[in-house]
Amino acid sequence: MTTEKRYVAEADNSGMHYVSEFRLTERGPGRTAVRMTFSAQPQEGEKPPLLARLLGGLGARAVAKAIAKDLADVAASVERRTA
What we know:
Largest sheet: 3 strands, antiparallel
Helix content: 25-40%
Structural class: alpha+beta
Number of strands: 3
Mean pLDDT: 81
Number of helices: 2
Low-confidence stretches: none
Strand order of the largest sheet: 1-2-3
Oligomer: single chain
């Protein structure tokens, strides 16, 4: 039987709504698959902040870097628990 755990974090900041979701699925003894999704949407009735519109591509790279760090932190935490 496959075991799946899910963690969702939501935040609102500067007119934007952010959602990060982690799904951890057991794949066998000592093996876990981690899937992370991230979304950023203007809050209802809000336009995206001017800076976000102007720096969209740069912002996407910064988000990708932050997500990579988050995933590395999750992996390190899991590895410490199993050591």
